[in-house]
Amino acid sequence: MKSSVNLRYVIFLAATAALGGLLFGFDIAIITGAGPFLTEHFKLGDLSLGWAFSSLLFGCALGSAIAGRLTDFYGRKKILLIVAVLFAITSLGTGAAPSFRFFALARFIGGLAVGGASILSPMYVAEVSPASLRGRMGALYQMSIVTGILISYTVNYLLRGIGPVNWRWMFITGVIPSVLFFVMLLSVPESPRFLFMAGKEKQAFAVLERIAGRQTAELEVSEIRASLSAQRKTWRDLLRPGIRRAVLVGFCLAILVHVSGINTIIDYAPAILKSAGWKIDAALFSTFIIGLTNFAFTLVSFWMIDRYGRKPLYIVGSLGMCAALLLLMSAVLLSRFQNSVVLIYILAYLAFFSSCIGPVFWTLVAEIFPNDLRGTAMGVPVLTQWIANAAVVLLFPLAFNQIGKAITFGFLAAMSLLQALFAWFFGPETKNKRLEEIEEHWKQVSGSHFVAARK
């Protein structure tokens, strides 16, 4: 059947929703450059520094759990608008914090918004993207995350020398992208699949028709209607045949994506480089190079994700990350953990993550669940990845400084290898499949010993 995809409109919808990823990346990474100044201002130790970084992430865990449930009742767009407002308020609150307790509380509340964006933005992108474009549109969300990280690194570096309150202004600048996100959301429709769930079939058809033409819209309407015919929305439904296997895969990938170390690199790059002999100005400038690398290799994923598929990228990316972490560990053991050597290995690690793992993870968790339970089901891997993220970020300063650099990098390398093995045996392949096709696939393999999705 011939399809006439309105590419410009699809990109507009996906890019608008993906701005939630920009705020996600900005809020997570802005503390990277502010961290050394926060440590001095509030006199923080290893654990309190870990709490300064991870308080946002514990908020993200709660936010993702709440948003996943709310979006199945109130829609994607309404909750995203609330998220945008919360981003702006907490950016101001964090920057104006009079005490460390207030700072941590503001970061935690800001995490509610980040957690909400992490589940709603990729969900909206998946639901408005045709199957042939969904991988690249999903990668657009990851691109927004790394753009937010790069912007935050740039803000950190530019504001590093403005005085003792520089860290306050670093956080306050988050208001600007929050307002932009809110304004752009006003111009997009509700997700067509939620409109069906809400009984607004004519509005849903109009959106689908504008996205991909009447013929494709008619096909998708029949498939969506069939997938929603036995609509149920309780947590117990996550255990029904087919869905529980998808939930298990999402759960395991969510743990592995963080215990393999990405946020230790994103958040603690200046601290790692300072321990390798870099001065603070050079360490902050290096984060800009890290951000550029992250951005550039995420662009590579646009070319690869719909060409080579999800599973091969996950395996290659995980093995590359493992190799880079083993090189960092060997540099410590051989007393070569210094200067440019460390930066080169960090950049290699990021290249594999950004081109393979990051885009594929966020694309997959929005693809593998059925229409009637997508918001609720997505809450499982998204909540899990935030908890794993928070735990790793909280404990990293303690592990790095007291347990030892070599052991820390060795553990992260082992987790990267485990991630590759899990992807090999259980990783799903969803390339070029409509969301309803993927849902039907899980039902067909529900009796299998493996959760692998094969053509």
Question: Can you walk through the features of this model?
Answer:
The chain is mostly helical and 455 residues long. The protein has a single domain, classed as MFS general substrate transporter like domains (Growth Hormone, Chain: A). 80% of the residues lie in helices and 0% in strands. The protein is built from 18 helices and no strands. α2 runs antiparallel to α3 and α4 packs across α16. The radius of gyration is 21 Å and the shape is globular. It starts with 6 loop residues before the first helix and ends in an 11-residue tail after the last helix. The C terminus is likely disordered.
Q: Can you lay out the helices and strands and say which pair or pack?
A:
Elements: H1 7-42, H2 46-74, H3 76-95, H4 100-128, H5 134-158, H6 166-172, H7 175-185, H8 192-197, H9 201-212, H10 214-227, H11 243-259, H12 262-275, H13 280-308, H14 310-333, H15 339-367, H16 374-403, H17 405-426, H18 435-444
